[in-house]
Amino acid sequence: MYAIVEIAGQQFKVAKDQKVYVHRLQNEEGSKVTFDNVLLLEDGKNITIGAPAIDGAAVEAKVIKHLKGDKVIVFKKKRRKGYKVKNGHRQYLTELVIESIVSSGAKKATKKAEPKKEVAAKATPKKAAPKKESKADDLKKVEGIGPKIAETLVAAGISTFAELAKTDATKIAEIIADVRGNHVTDTWPAQAKLAAEGKWDELKKWQDELDGGKPA
After folding, report:
1. Of 53, 59, 134, 149, which is the most exposed, with the fewest CB atoms less than 10 Å away?
2. 27 pLDDT exceeds 90?
3. Interstrand relation of 2-7 and 214-215 (parallel, antiparallel or unpaired)
4. With a threshold of 0.70, does the pTM exceed it?
């Protein structure tokens, strides 16, 4: 039995007891997590395809540890311009082990005599789960954050203005430590807070006074 499930914005084909490396999750090491965005489920000869997800299906996993991936060298060069830039990057990852693949849809089909109230009680939290997922914001709207830093923050589990606003500036500096350049993160949480609250005029006025995220 295997499933195709979406985890941290990526799709994986997983089976029981399989180890998977995904973008960094916020869950603590040793904790258990459930992913209910199952796109395909195979159980013997039966294959179920979601539209887009399979209602009630889920993949349960355990967080083994947080780590960094192997270093990747990014080299950019412009011909006849004398422009050369060499950067190194190590992706923040989380190691998971798949503990079980649940298909509650199949159970509903074989237990039609069960009370409807009990089925509804099980289905309600499953349907509510996708609402908890926050839509990613364009973090580059924060003065001082470029595409590379935005990508690194998303990989570390910070993808919205609200999440960035709650993150300490020192912690942000640790997360982007491998991104080349001198980055001042002191104002980023406050900028993100204004963006999260929709105070764009106030944010724009403040950003006009900043230089790379710090007072000019």
Report:
1. 134
2. yes
3. unpaired
4. no
